[in-house]
């Protein structure tokens, strides 16, 4: 039963139905959407988020300086903290392509597609890498 009352209505209406509301407690959709701790959710601790962001930023700076080996090291450190970021996997794959490490690029683009099956840049690059590796299946 839905009950609509003004916010400034007297408390006698609430008192009559307060017991019935307490006995019919249901979980809202928002409460049901809260996931359990069993699922992989990414980073939660602020210190880990800061460390993850720092590694990503250092990798980006190294890539801009064309220091691809250092960029790859920092990207791999970041992905060890949070492997759910599709854009990070894409960047790893892109740097691996520039380093001509095709198996690593393949793995990165595949992981990116596991994170988000609709990420077209990962799919496009994966097709190219698979063709180069002669993996036509």
TrEMBL record:
Its main location: nucleus. One of its GO terms (biological process) is chromatin organization. One of its GO terms (cellular component) is nucleus. GO terms for molecular function: nucleosome binding. It is found in: Nucleus. Keywords: Nucleus, TPR repeat. Transmembrane segments: none annotated. This is Uncharacterized protein. It comes from Neotoma lepida (Desert woodrat).
